[in-house]
Amino acid sequence: MIPDKAPQENVFHCSEDLKKESHIPSFEKYKELYIRSIENPDEFWGAIAKDFFWKTKHTGQFLDYNFDVTKGEIFIKFMEGATTNICYNLLDRNVHERKLGDNIAFFWLVECSAKRYGRKTGRDMRVLYLMISITIDYFWFKEGNEPGDDLTVTYKELLQKVCRFANVLKSQGVKKGDRVSIYMPMVVELVVAMLACARIGAVHSIVFAGFSAESLCERIIDSKCSLLITADGFYRGDKLINLKLLADEALQKCRDKGFPLKKCIMLKHLSKEPEAAGRQSPPAKRACPDLEVPWNPDVDLCWHTLMSGAADECEPEWCESEDPLFILYTSGSTGKPKCNAASCCRLLMVSSLQGVLHTVSGYLLYVAATFKLVFDHQPGDVYWCTADIGWITGHSYITYGPLANGATSVLFEGLPTYPDVGRMWQIVDKYQVTKFYTAPTAIRLLMKYGSDPVQKYKRKSLKVLGTVGEPINPEAWQWYHGVVGEKRCPIVDTFWQTETGGHVLTPLPAATPMKPGSATFPFFGVVPAILNESGEELEGPSEGYLVFKQPWPGVMRSVFGNHERFEATYFKKFPGYYVTGDGCRRDKDGYYWITGRIDDMLNVSGHLLSTAEVESALVEHKSVVEAAVVSRPHAVKGESLYCFVTLNDGVAYSQALEAELRKQVREKIGAIATPDYIQNAPGLPKTRSGKIMRRVLRKIACNEKDLGDISTLADSSVVDELFRNRCATTARV
């Protein structure tokens, strides 16, 4: 499965300096450790477990599982019998054992004021709503809303805050196993809340602050939460979001549906309390005189008042290895939220809620190991992940993975394109960022503005670049590598899902020769395979369904409250395998290439085509910065290709350009892949985390106005414009 030798032609290598300090400095070392992780997982993961505290050691099998639905219930058990507390390992261990208490845990950056700087880039500012978190070894920094306004929190201070809020939760009757819903912007208190839950054994269910009241309500009811934690409001660009108003609307919907939530704790992030209220609090972190905060004294509790009366110490609740840690929902394709990569669930054509359930010990070890090795984390590093904690990337690679390694993070609340499109690189220089992790969508957007905004800044501190969220097309990879990284920074193109908990296919910076657009090889403990439609394993160069043959510590354990759905979604199609729902290609060198969701594969006249492959061909054209391809029913061919293209600034759409694009796709892939429709798309419908909502594009292609839940859209006006400018599909056959 892993080639004996790494290829030397048509690949990119890291610098020799990086190899000298790397945890895994060569392909040979990677292969040696990989074989050990597969043949002797007890020894491999047991060695990693020694870095962490265990109240009691495991007594049962180190790893036990069943992936075959024909042989009984699906289960995964890791370090059975062991007890620990993940919050203790993230904070107490670093403060008391590693003596990092005085080291900083957070820098917090909030966006520059829109009114102060003005909107520079129109829709793109709204589309690229990436809440930025930066992680540094031993530190977590928090910077305020204007340049020079900052807040720092040390590990000792963070531990104290978490203990105090854990005591707050206990005072409200929250106990081990209870579910707590968290609906907050990217503030330090979000991390405090989630770790406080983990400290007392409660299960957090974080709901992205961009979701609607209805979405919050559905998640509260599905996970049967006992308490809601929220904030008064936050800014998205120059738009004020009254989060408390949305939370109150969600709680009313819960009451209407027979699930009254008795308590809601609110953080004053923007507002100042009325003097008559008699509650003491620090001044607002960002002046907001227009924010009116609704208050229900029968339900609402003030975060600051509760914290002021809480004790500084809280004994951790010792949890079994397989006790639940968190539930996380994401949006699915049918217009209803589902808890995983959307397409897996779409195969079942279901629309009910599903919540990915992760457990304590396996998740701890896996995110700690992947963070350390994939980003080659070293003392003194500054790591920046541009995800929001409301998504799995934020859970694993802003909070749990970095803190487990004693890392320092920077949280950024706002838009990284303020005051201009060089904002990211200004932050890189300011904090001397060494490891940078972002989405291909963000890279393609920044490509539109050329290299000048990047090259205005030095970026000499950068050592490793990463991508997450979707396959990165080779053209964006080359720009990222050449312009941002100046051809000296390796790119870790990571493939994983909410369900996997952490990276499953990924390069290692010093060990893996890189191919632009390839996720390369499996991480330790992960055994991929490619199957055909009949479930037969394909050897050598091949393309088909990506599956995994055995579990790794961080894989999800179930769908909360619906284990049957878990089995049917991930294990029924191919018994004996975990089915990712993604298509994959393996080349002659053994490299894995993600081709897109299986339902993003098109069957055109009996030929399977990958939408990602067509998109890549389109963006190779000098005029195209981004493309999205979906299927549209065709009376003769079964399916046809409907393509949306976003052009570079200053490029006009024309019939001549359309002809060039069709020719390019034919030349790159073949005549069978020639687009049937190409639509000019100045903007694409994206979530606030930057992902393209392809189900919305499919609706537009078919002129279907019932879009389902689009509350996660960053800019709904994009959809209206795309409908107005649809291709004349009725004339085509």
Automatic annotation (TrEMBL):
<feature type="domain" description="AMP-dependent synthetase/ligase">
    <location>
        <begin position="149"/>
        <end position="557"/>
    </location>
</feature>
<dbReference type="GO" id="GO:0005524">
    <property type="term" value="F:ATP binding"/>
</dbReference>
<dbReference type="GO" id="GO:0005737">
    <property type="term" value="C:cytoplasm"/>
</dbReference>
<dbReference type="GO" id="GO:0016208">
    <property type="term" value="F:AMP binding"/>
</dbReference>
<dbReference type="Pfam" id="PF16177">
    <property type="entry name" value="ACAS_N"/>
</dbReference>
<comment type="similarity">
    <text>Belongs to the ATP-dependent AMP-binding enzyme family.</text>
</comment>
<dbReference type="GO" id="GO:0006629">
    <property type="term" value="P:lipid metabolic process"/>
</dbReference>
<keyword id="KW-0547">Nucleotide-binding</keyword>
<dbReference type="GO" id="GO:0019427">
    <property type="term" value="P:acetyl-CoA biosynthetic process from acetate"/>
</dbReference>
<dbReference type="InterPro" id="IPR020845">
    <property type="entry name" value="AMP-binding_CS"/>
</dbReference>
<dbReference type="InterPro" id="IPR042099">
    <property type="entry name" value="ANL_N_sf"/>
</dbReference>
<dbReference type="InterPro" id="IPR000873">
    <property type="entry name" value="AMP-dep_synth/lig_dom"/>
</dbReference>
<keyword id="KW-0067">ATP-binding</keyword>
<feature type="domain" description="Acetyl-coenzyme A synthetase N-terminal">
    <location>
        <begin position="30"/>
        <end position="89"/>
    </location>
</feature>
<dbReference type="InterPro" id="IPR011904">
    <property type="entry name" value="Ac_CoA_lig"/>
</dbReference>
<dbReference type="InterPro" id="IPR025110">
    <property type="entry name" value="AMP-bd_C"/>
</dbReference>
<protein>
    <recommendedName>
        <fullName>Acetyl-coenzyme A synthetase</fullName>
        <ecNumber>6.2.1.1</ecNumber>
    </recommendedName>
</protein>
<dbReference type="GO" id="GO:0003987">
    <property type="term" value="F:acetate-CoA ligase activity"/>
</dbReference>
<dbReference type="InterPro" id="IPR032387">
    <property type="entry name" value="ACAS_N"/>
</dbReference>
<dbReference type="Pfam" id="PF00501">
    <property type="entry name" value="AMP-binding"/>
</dbReference>
<dbReference type="InterPro" id="IPR045851">
    <property type="entry name" value="AMP-bd_C_sf"/>
</dbReference>
<comment type="subunit">
    <text>Monomer. Interacts with TFEB. Interacts with the 'Thr-172' phosphorylated form of PRKAA2. Interacts with CREBBP.</text>
</comment>
<dbReference type="Pfam" id="PF13193">
    <property type="entry name" value="AMP-binding_C"/>
</dbReference>
<keyword id="KW-0436">Ligase</keyword>
<feature type="domain" description="AMP-binding enzyme C-terminal">
    <location>
        <begin position="613"/>
        <end position="691"/>
    </location>
</feature>
<dbReference type="GO" id="GO:0050218">
    <property type="term" value="F:propionate-CoA ligase activity"/>
</dbReference>
<keyword id="KW-0443">Lipid metabolism</keyword>
